[in-house]
UniProtKB/TrEMBL annotation:
Function comment: An accessory protein needed during the final step in the assembly of 30S ribosomal subunit, possibly for assembly of the head region. Essential for efficient processing of 16S rRNA. May be needed both before and after RbfA during the maturation of 16S rRNA. It has affinity for free ribosomal 30S subunits but not for 70S ribosomes.
Domain notes: The PRC barrel domain binds ribosomal protein uS19.
Stretches for region Disordered: 1-28
Protein name, as recorded: Ribosome maturation factor RimM
Keyword field contains rRNA processing: yes
Chain segments annotated as transmembrane: none
Protein localization: Cytoplasm
Length: 229
């Protein structure tokens, strides 16, 4: 760090003396802007808070993630309705329930204010803390990919639902316009795309290529076209 009065090096970036003279209101605005940007990254749902248990702030937690090991003391999660972060203090299993306590939530009254809130994490933290094995993918990497069969695009993944032990990809079907079909002269209300379910099993899914900065990626299938006809 350069301690001269002219410049100060902070994490590799130089700040002019004017930065140090920022008014208190400007400092607050800067912090708020940073916080809002931080919130925007937290879009991956981890689970939902259930009922309060006991008198010291414990809460039942309904995990919607496949990675229970993601929940660790010190993990920071974003509470949607509260619009702020909660930090896990402890995790306890009691029979079939998963109980969490959070920093600064130390009474039943405070805990009850969190009931039914959904908690979120970021894609970056998910990738860092949830290692995948071969041929495993995160939902958020699959959503948005095109489904391709014999070089024909059948549609695009818009959501994933788990029914029983099987994941189903919800595909918004692609319906290219026929060149022989006359085009209306007046504007008409756009029709909603047809949706079909594609089971994520070997009978239909051959392989998946994730999107990269230079390639769109896709889900390559067999026998899937019959599901959307």
């Amino acid at each position: 760090m350069n301690n001269s009065p002219q410049t100060a090096t902070n994490h590799g970036s130089k700040q002019s003396p004017n930065t140090q003279d920022t008014t208190p209101s400007e400092k607050v605005d800067s912090r708020l802007e940073s916080t809002f940007l931080d919130y925007a990254d937290y879009v991956i749902e981890v689970g939902k808070i259930g009922r309060a248990v006991g008198l010291k702030g414990a809460l039942v937690f309904h995990l919607t993630s496949d990675f229970e090991e993601f929940l660790q003391a010190g993990t920071r999660l974003f509470a949607d309705r509260l619009q702020r972060f909660l930090t896990i203090q402890s995790i306890t299993k009691r029979r079939s329930d998963l109980l969490l306590t959070f920093t600064h939530i130390d009474s039943r009254e405070k805990a009850q204010e969190l009931v039914n809130m959904r908690l979120f994490t970021s894609k970056q933290e998910t990738r860092a803390k949830c290692p995948l094995t071969k041929d495993e993918f995160f939902y958020f990497d699959i959503i948005g990919l095109e489904v391709i069969e014999n070089d024909e695009v059948l549609g695009k993944v818009i959501e994933i639902e788990r029914i029983g032990s099987t994941d189903y990809l919800l595909i918004a079907q692609t319906t290219p316009a026929s060149p022989d079909q006359p085009q209306p002269q007046k504007s008409t209300k756009a029709k909603k795309p047809k949706i079909f379910y594609l089971p994520y099993i070997d009978a239909y899914v051959l392989h998946i290529s994730l999107a990269t900065p230079t390639q769109n990626g896709g889900i390559f299938t067999q026998n899937a076209k019959s599901l959307c006809e």
